[in-house]
Amino acid sequence: MSRACELTGAKANNGMAVSHSHIRTKKLQQVNLQKRRLWWEEGKKWVNIKISTKALKSIQKVGLDKFAKSNGVDLKKF
Fold first, then answer.
1. pTM of whole model > 0.70?
2. What is the CATH number of the domain that holds 41?
3. Nearest of 5, 24, 2 to residue 14 by alpha carbon
4. N or C: which end of the chain has fewer CB within 10 A?
5. Which Gene3D superfamilies does the annotation name?
6. Which alpha helices (H) appear in 1-78, and where do they start and end?
């Protein structure tokens, strides 16, 4: 399984590490992914999902069902 959020699709970002002498080297900025077991109210069941912390904060604010629908994700597959 890839290192991507299953709800938002967020994945690693290519960036540059810049030293004091301004030598630039490539680096990969990974997403802060967490494995969480969330209660899905509409489906009346627990959902195991790999999710970014940014998406987790949004879910706490608006709810899992509403957030999944806004991102076009079907929670039945989890």
1. yes
2. 2.30.170.40
3. 24
4. N
5. Ribosomal protein L28/L24
6. 53-62, 64-70
